[in-house]
Amino acid sequence: MARIKALINGQWYGDLEETPAVRRALATGDRFRTRVTADGGPGPNGASALPAEPGRYHLYVSYACPWAHRTILYRRLKGLEDVISLSVLHPRMGDEAGWRFGDTAMSTPDHANGCRYLHEVYQRGKPDATTRVTVPMLWDKHEGRIVNRESGDIMRMLNSAFDRWGDADVDFYPPGLRPAIDKLNALILPRVCAGVYRAGFARSQADYDRAVHELFETLDELERRLGRQPYLLGEHITESDWHLFCTLVRFDAAYHGALRCNRYRLTDYPALAAFTRRLYRLPGVAETVKFDHIKAHYYDDLGELEPTIVPAGPARDFRSECTAKPPPEFSRIEAEH
């Protein structure tokens, strides 16, 4: 049975057996979905909200994690570095302590709470929490509590709530495109962004095969779309582009090998590869992509991979591709042996 790391009723477990009871507890545990709005008025669907203020909020991230990367990008592209402070977790988190801070080349100290491990920050924010301990996480320094740890929520907060202090001209969720963005997200997020994890952490061959099929079927569809236009919705960069980018930029370095998404590489998709390079070359983006962090994380001992699953790829068959007559020197060497 799989082993996981989690808080259960405020107690940290770094090597917990994922029993049905544990899965149920985590499924009904703490969600942390408070919003930050420009004036503190209710968030979407009447969600509780806090007011945007410079210096009040702190972002916990890892450069290795694609979900956290989205929030790092928004903080950079919206010009909010001096408005929202940041702490970086070390990419290696395979031991029982989980995500940890440190004054190292790949991490920072915890600038907001002075903790050694991220689970200690969660415990400080909610002493009886039942939850996985994940990044990104937005922290309220004034009230000493967790605001939100859903990357999609945090992206939309950073996109508009802090425009009084950031770059209000940058808008990745414009009103006229919101229905189209939401429709694209409903395709990309489960089948690609989460799909690489559904494949990598599948518990059975059937689950893995299903996830890989959906992943590459969707990449095929997106390849066709991006073969016609530079971005997912045409000429305008939107939230959906950044969701996809943060997965694709990791694909060949991590997901292809470490998570067994090896039917094809990103470089086998000309339009998707060009799209990823196009976004990577935008001002401020490359500095948020740290491949040493990415590889250190995904080739750490994540402890949740099912060893019996057989990977799907590669799709190319060298027997059918190698049809040319071998050179004479190869024939001579083969004959000698």
List the helices and strands and how they pair.
Layout: E1 3-8, E2 11-17, H1 20-27, E3 35-37, E4 49-51, E5 57-61, H2 66-77, E6 85-88, H3 118-125, E7 137-140, E8 145-148, H4 151-160, H5 178-193, H6 195-200, H7 205-226, H8 239-258, H9 270-280, H10 291-298, H11 318-321, H12 328-336
Parallel strand pairs: 3-4, 5-6
Antiparallel strand pairs: 1-2, 5-7, 7-8
In short:
With 337 residues, the protein is α/β, with parallel strands linked by helices. The chain is built from 12 helices and 8 strands. The chain has a 4-stranded mixed beta sheet, sandwiched between helices.
Q: How many angstroms separate the termini?
A: 48 Å
Report the C-alpha radius of gyration, rounded: 22 Å
Task: Give the total of domains.
Answer: 2
Form type? globular
Give descriptors for this structure.
337 residues, alpha/beta, Glutaredoxin, 2 domains, 11% strand, Glutathione S-transferase Yfyf (Class Pi), Chain A, domain 2
Structure notes:
This protein is an alpha/beta fold and 337 residues long. It folds into 2 domains: 3-160, Glutaredoxin (3-Layer(aba) Sandwich), CATH 3.40.30.10; 178-298, Glutathione S-transferase Yfyf (Class Pi), Chain A, domain 2 (Up-down Bundle). It is 40% helix and 11% strand. The chain contains 12 helices and 8 strands. It has helices at 20-27, 66-77, 118-125, 151-160, 178-193, 195-200, 205-226, 239-258, 270-280, 291-298, 318-321, 328-336, and strands at residues 3-8, 11-17, 35-37, 49-51, 57-61, 85-88, 137-140, 145-148. The strands form 3 sheets. Strands 6-5-7-8 form a 4-stranded mixed beta sheet, with helices on both faces. A two-stranded antiparallel ribbon has the order 1-2. It has a two-stranded parallel ribbon with strand order 3-4. A hairpin with a 2-residue loop joins strand 1 (3-8) and strand 2 (11-17). The longest helix has 22 residues, at 205-226. It is globular, with a radius of gyration of 22 Å.
